[in-house]
């Protein structure tokens, strides 16, 4: 992950560098340096997993909330490319995206399935 990709990932999550620093218990200076030099590999995996979880939440959880209007897409979401590939986080995200929630719902609770 490059410094530009790092900054884009934080924007997509709605985070600042200080938010990430607090969550991963690192100094703000370290997180700031990553914006220039690129973060360590584990940070790319962490942010990739969080973006995948956020994407799954937007696709499957938010639409299920009754009476809650669907959030409009942000400019970052509209211009976002595909999720990262080749990492463990990407593999988990891909398996979750291919999960057939409707089929499971029909088997588990047929009266509640849409």
Structural write-up:
This protein is an all-alpha fold and 114 residues long. It has one domain (3-108). It has 7 helices and no strands. α1 runs parallel beside α4 (41-61) and α2 (17-24) packs across α3 (28-37). The model has no long low-confidence stretch (mean pLDDT 78). InterPro entries: Cro/C1-type_HTH. It comes from Rhodocyclus tenuis (Rhodospirillum tenue). This is Transcriptional regulator with XRE-family HTH domain.
**H/E series:** HHHHHHH
Gross geometry: globular
Tally the helices: what do you get?
7
The percent range for strand residues is under 5%
Structural class: mainly alpha
Helices and strands, with pairings:
Blueprint: H1 3-13, H2 17-24, H3 28-37, H4 41-61, H5 75-79, H6 88-97, H7 101-108
Short description:
The protein is mainly α and 114 residues long.
Key words describing this protein structure:
single chain, 114 residues, 0% strand, globular
